[in-house]
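Troubleshooting entry. The earlier prediction with flavin-adenine dinucleotide gave an output that would not parse, so I re-checked the input for stray whitespace and re-submitted. Clean input:
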Amino acid sequence: VTLTDASQLTSTTYDYVIVGAGNAGLVLANRLTEDANTTVLVLEAGVSDENVIPVIAPFLGPSVTPDTPWDWNYTTTAQPGLDNRTYPYPRGRLLGGSSSANYMIHQYGTNEDWDRMANVSADAGWAWSNMKQYIERHEKFILPTNGQNVSSEYIASLHSYTGELDVSLPVWTQATDARVVATTQQLAEFPYNQDISGINNDMLGIGWAQSSMVNGTRASSSTSYLASANDRPNLTVLINAMVTKLLPIGTPAGVRSFRNVQFSDARTFSVTPSFQVQATKEVILAAGAVGTPQILQLSGIGASEDLAPLDIPVLVNSPQVGKNLQDHPLLPNIFNVAGNSSLDHILRDPAQLGAAIAQWETNRTGFISNNVVNNIGFARLNSTVLEQFTDPAAGPTTPHFEIIFANFWLDPIVTLPSNGSYLTILTALVTPTSRGSITIQSTNPFVAPLINPNMLDTLFDITTMVESVKAIKRFAAAPAWGDYITSAFGSLAGTSDAALEEHARQHTTTVFHPTSTASMAAQDALDGVVNPDLTVKGTSGLRIVDLSVFPFVPSCHPMGPVYILAERAADLIKAAS
Ligand SMILES: Cc1cc2nc3c(=O)[nH]c(=O)nc-3n(C[C@H](O)[C@H](O)[C@H](O)COP(=O)(O)OP(=O)(O)OC[C@H]3O[C@@H](n4cnc5c(N)ncnc54)[C@H](O)[C@@H]3O)c2cc1C
């Protein structure tokens, strides 16, 4: 059952209390309540996702954030690597968390991404050979129902058709899709990849985006994992519940037990009145890469240099809490194009856009029923550039950068100009070496923490961004684009490395993939925030299950990795109980 007010709770004690009804939290809510004797309470600060059109309609996904009631509406600190700019840092604040607010591209990463996590944590259970089994439980691959032939857009034998989350292929053709595919035949540098999910251990090349959607509707952890478990009497989800602190029970020698959770009504933006619930087995933090370190620090679990200025007693000295933040930098590269086949003229005309939304509301067809992106690709740096660096990729088949195609103006920061037609070829750095931090700046949980992704801080990162721009310029020079692209827009027109570096520093923001702020390390390692079984070092009764535990950001869109991480975490938690 989903409740909206703390007064509706019928108990203050549950076997498990999960903090955050997000991407990972709702996987656990489902799996842990499969046993009818296990009681679970999920506390979610955000609101319901029910009947929220921008959340449901795939193409409207980018309007769910920033600066909305469904977003935490964070802003970064000034970024020295980005000409000291700040920019919005969206995180879903509703049922489903960021899986209800994201752009729905669904992948798993490379086998090397997972094998590195196994090596770093000294737990072979995180290796791809073990993790791939969770795809069967997680994924429900569904072919588009509009009759189009998609046999060349995915590899049928790789996928699962029996899991919880609907995953599908594009249902509406962007006018440039054929040109993207034709380029893969014209330029050897950009081969065609028939299945870009990573399940075949290969994300290199250009292919068709797989998305968490079906029949013109978003699929999130809420519409899948929660929907199929919400009528279980042993599951309670409370929205509007802002967790403000974890409280230790007693002071047992050695480790402290954090089984008490304090929360308040998120609608009041006040810590009073405050409520408390207790977990008899475990508290599980699934508040995401920003929320989780914030709650730890508010609870006195963190680095003393972060807690001392706020007079927060250090209950568990855990120096890496909030450190190591990694994220994928995203750079919109925009071209002017000929004719009217880009979507821009529809997107800037309220009447045409309104008609498209009405069509979607009537029968779930048209471009609103489709994701904003149909084609994505991944590539490695060429060896001449790479040999200047220690390769930060998880292995030799893991990409360094991503290429994303949209047949319209897609810049998260700069709004569509009042005229012109555009093609956007975004590039994203998927093996960044810059590391940033999340640090609370107040003991008031309603004050956002300082978010410093430290974008483009290293020579490798800026060099790779520049190389990615050069690569898409080569892509755009293929014969397939001869009668379409007319010129590079704005600072993309620069030709020298220095000019492209300035283009990158001026326009880069984020693909919204923060990770690693409560990093996993080996059981006996002194660094790291969690053990390989995701229990928090130096505590008992406390685990973290969300993207913050990945020691390295996966080289892909990370929602798939979060889902299967949570599937394995559920197994670990059940085994420990
Ligand atoms: C705009 C956007 C676009 C993206 N696009 C893609 C994409 O196309 N493909 C992809 O793979 N990934 C994408 N991502 C990233 C992906 O969605 C996230 O990395 C992933 O969902 C994170 O999962 P999580 O479980 O770690 O956290 P979340 O899903 O963010 O869950 C955390 C939950 O905890 C709640 N919470 C936080 N603090 C508290 C508190 N104090 N008390 C109570 N509740 C709290 C939050 O409200 C939220 O519901 C995107 C993300 C965004 C924001």
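This one parsed fine. The two ends are 24 Å apart (CA to CA).
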